[in-house]
Automatic annotation (TrEMBL):
Residues 13-263 form the Metallo-beta-lactamase domain. This is MBL fold hydrolase. Residues 268-393 form the Beta-Casp domain. GO terms for molecular function: hydrolase activity; RNA endonuclease activity. SUPFAM superfamilies: Metallo-hydrolase/oxidoreductase. The lineage of its organism: Bacteria, Pseudomonadati, Bacteroidota, Cytophagia, Cytophagales.
Length: 479
């Protein structure tokens, strides 16, 4: 069989891998948006062997037989509608929760795409019109999302699913996000059995709500993410302790305001659950909490429908309190009008809003309104790509330009990583360490910045793993 790396190679986003068996059965694992490009899309670089580039893909989409999806985040799922638009006619296999969350995220992306096109349509400038025509070719809309979701088939965790006479697949819990999976493929070729695991994004132990990553059986080949391959998580506190410390200093010791930029799917649910535990189990004084993201509201409903998939602590908390995310003084803000109205809320409060990198979304409005307020704290809880507003805040810029207006940075900027959904170097080593150094034939490192990959490659080599490879985009390997 042949494995080609078409995304998330020597970078974090755009996960996409093509596995071809000897009988020419083609399986695409993930089909993500490249968020490190300005438009979030993934045009091809060069055609892979045996195919030709068409639109966004370095292969003919109609030649693909099956798509496997590790989890819902758009850097793994975001180009699926383009795959169908350009000729793919097969199914997508994923877990039930991934099915539900992917639909929400793709619909949200389509809505943003439509908004971009509408804004350009309103312009009379020729260069803008040309850009609008190109965007209509490049950006998928709600119709393509509906077509995509009609072809999704939900697969249970830990149940071997037979794809055809020579291929079977198993989805194993990966932590990281509700429904996220490691994908293990067993392939029979010429009387020989070969196995390969795609890690997806590896979660961390004891994360709020989610189960720990489950053990993966011995395989011959391993495709492993390496986001935190060169570092450990800095915060050793429990999430409740870390959040309580910030809230006490920001909203209790002084009558201040806490703004938490947070991704709507996964991160916001962990935050709300932790706040609920603070108020319920730790007798923390109630402070008004606003969740300002319609997508977060929809995602929370998916979590509420999948209590059985959560960890034992969350299930026990739910049985005792009948709710994971609803507590005193908590309010969802569904409309844009309600979002802007909380600027007039002068009591101490907590505002959780997307996006987590402070790039687009309603959080930009809240940051702009509070960035010059010394009684405000902006708490960053996750990775921020270089160049985003979140990255600039974390790097200590004294002024920020938001929507064309310059603001002096007088708010307090803090960071915790207890809510990061990615496992650190020790978690990654624990994952790879389930594989025998004698049996594992090759490790491929993906989904990380190159320095992180190099450091993790060295760590694995020192641990006795031979043949640890860092593929470039477009590289193919015969397995």
């Amino acid at each position: 069989m042949k494995l080609s790396f078409l995304g998330a190679a020597r970078q974090v986003t755009g996960s996409m891998y093509l596995l071809e068996t000897e009988d020419d059965y083609r399986i695409l694992i993930d089909c993500g948006s490249d968020l490190e490009r300005s438009n979030g899309q993934t045009p091809p670089t060069a055609p892979i062997t045996g195919g030709h580039a068409t639109g966004f893909f370095p292969f003919e989409p109609s030649s693909i037989h099956l798509v496997l999806l590790t989890h819902a985040h758009v850097d793994h799922s975001g180009n699926l509608p383009n795959l169908y638009r350009e000729g793919y006619e097969g199914q997508i296999l994923c877990t039930e929760a991934t099915h539900s969350l992917t639909e929400l995220l793709l619909k949200d992306a389509a809505s943003l795409n439509q908004k971009r096109i509408n804004e350009l349509n309103a312009s009379k400038k020729k260069r803008v019109k040309d850009r609008q025509q190109q965007l209509q070719k490049d950006l998928y809309l709600d119709k393509q999302v509906r077509e995509t979701m009609e072809n999704v088939v939900s697969i249970q965790f830990n149940r071997r699913f037979r794809v055809n006479d020579s291929v079977d697949v198993t989805f194993i819990p990966a932590g990281h996000l509700l429904g996220a999976a490691h994908i293990v493929l067993n392939i029979r070729e010429n009387g020989e059995r070969k196995s390969i695991c795609f890690s997806g994004d590896i979660g961390r132990k004891n994360y709020p709500l989610l189960t720990d990553p489950a053990p993966v059986p011995q395989v011959d080949y391993l495709v492993c993410e390496s986001t935190y391959g060169n570092r450990l998580h800095e915060d050793l506190k429990k999430p409740e302790e870390a959040l309580a410390d910030v809230i006490k200093r920001t909203c209790i010791d002084i009558p201040g305001r806490l703004i938490i930029p947070s991704f709507s799917v996964g991160r916001t649910q962990a935050l709300l659950y932790t706040l609920n535990k603070l108020y319920t189990d730790y007798n923390f004084p109630p402070i008004k909490v606003f969740s300002d993201s319609p997508l977060a509201l929809e995602s929370t409903r998916v979590y509420e429908k999948n209590i059985r998939l959560l960890n034992a602590d969350a299930r026990e908390f739910y049985e005792e309190n009948e709710s994971l995310f609803d507590f005193e003084n908590f309010q969802y803000l569904e409309s844009a009008k309600a979002s802007k109205a909380i600027s007039n809320h002068y009591e101490p409060c907590i505002i959780i809003s997307s996006s987590g990198m402070v790039q687009g979304g309603r959080v930009e409005y809240h940051v702009a309104n509070n960035i010059s307020n010394p009684y405000c704290t902006i708490l960053m809880i996750g990775y921020c790509a270089e160049g985003t507003l979140g990255w600039r805040l974390l790097n200590g810029q004294s002024t920020l330009t938001i929507k064309g207006k310059e603001h002096a940075v007088m708010a307090n900027i803090e960071k915790v990583d207890v809510f990061s959904g990615h496992g650190d170097r020790d978690d990654l080593m624990r994952f790879v360490g389930m594989q025998s150094t004698q049996t594992l034939k090759q490790v491929f490192l993906v989904h990380g910045e190159y320095p992180s990959m190099e450091a993790f490659q060295q760590t694995l080599t020192e641990a006795g793993y031979a043949n640890v490879t860092i593929p470039k985009k477009g590289d193919s390997f015969d397995l």
